Amino acid sequence: MILGIETSFNDTGAAVVKGTGEILSNLRSTFTDRYELEHAPIRAKEHHEEELPKVVERALEESGKTINDIKAIAVAIGPGQLHSLQAGIAFA
User: Fold this and answer.
1) Does residue 34 register a pLDDT over 90?
2) Between the CA of residue 4 and those of 28, 39, 55, what are the distances in Å?
3) CA neighbours within 13 Å on the CB side: how many for 10?
4) Are residues 29 and 7 in contact, defined by beta-carbon separation less than 8 angstroms?
5) What distance in Å separates the CA atoms of residue 82 and residue 91, rounded to the nearest whole number?
6) Architecture in CATH for domain 2-91
7) Per-residue pLDDT tens digits for 42-86
8) pLDDT at 42
9) Looking at per-residue confidence, does 37 or 39 come out higher?
């Protein structure tokens, strides 16, 4: 079981995938409708920090798995907005 985390810019995503490639869950949360884009990089980072725990929890629930079932974590490291990527890496 692999937990995938994506935070390259405005979407906070999490997925649980079997080693065979079968996707058990795939969820995302986006900030573009909730914040002004004037300060998008900082807002995106804040959004990721707030939403990652919720999105990951929902992805695990939807997949029927727990964090103890996860054998690997895959996280986006680029390309993308630096602050957003750092939020995902820190969470992973």
Assistant:
1) no
2) 11, 27, 11
3) 10
4) no
5) 14
6) 2-Layer Sandwich (3.30)
7) 778 888 999 999 999 999 999 999 999 999 999 999 998 899 999
8) 78
9) 39
| Tokens standing for residue 59 | 């992805």
- The owner of tokens 């869950």 is 25
Q: Where are the alpha helices (DSSP H) in the chain?
A: 40-63, 82-91
How far apart are alpha carbons 65 and 85 in whole angstroms? 25
Encoded tokens for 79: 């390309």
Interval 4-33: pLDDT, tens:
999 988 889 999 999 999 999 999 988 765
**3-state secondary structure (DSSP) of residue 1:** coil
The answer to whether 87 and 1 are in contact (CB under 8 A) is no
For the chain, report the end-to-end CA distance as a whole number of angstroms. Answer: 15
